[in-house]
Amino acid sequence: MNDKSLASSKLRKVFWAYLAIAMMLLVLCETDLLDISILAGYERMEYISAVVMELIMLITIPIALFMVKMSVLRKWITSDSVRINTRYDLFANLRMLVLALPMILNLVFYYAFGNNPTFGYMAVIYFICMFLVYPSEARYESETNKQ
What we know:
By secondary structure, the chain is mostly helical. The protein has helices spanning 3-30, 43-66, 71-78, 84-112, 117-132, 137-144. It is built from 6 helices and no strands.
């Protein structure tokens, strides 16, 4: 197994781990094994949280999807051929974290505020965006200009 496929394998495990955490939270809360509706009834806090999470969504999704288009970042990743795999792993993990963390946080807010659909919709949007940054070998080659 070469370095490229090993790196992709590790990144795919991290990708699926983020989604597994979200799915476990979803199943636990939907089956009432985990009741986190502690903030239900706090309308002001719910409104502020929704606005903040919407702003975070407007910032994080474009950053995560177009991060590789930033010339400074692309030059940094490809500048050292010895460390290209490590740098790309760091970059890909950061990109997935930028999407996964708000997705999980929106799920927590969805259940904490008593099933507010705003947070649920944002979590679904992040879920879909996660598949747009799926760490495949073809993505690795195209983003590092490596064959």
